[in-house]
Amino acid sequence: MRAEHKPFPTVARPTANPADAAADTATEGALVVRAHTWADVWVNGKRRGTAPLRLTLPAGRYVVRLTNDLHDETMTVQVGATEAVIEKSW
Description:
The protein has one helix at residues 18-25; strands spanning 28-36, 39-43, 46-51, 53-58, 60-67, 72-79, 84-89. It is mostly beta strands.
């Protein structure tokens, strides 16, 4: 008697989260910086203003530096379909 070959069952792939898909295709987004009491905001080495600040930027990854008389902090943020928000209470 010959064994019958059965194909492996297929497993449905998870569908992409619509928000993730939107972030991948976004062409611009918002970077919002809030700091108490204040902070100078640098994006990719260029001073962009003083927080509180809202910038519209092309989608992508940015190096953001926040400085004031007592603090100097650098971070990387992803700007895309959703608003990137940085909040500091120094």
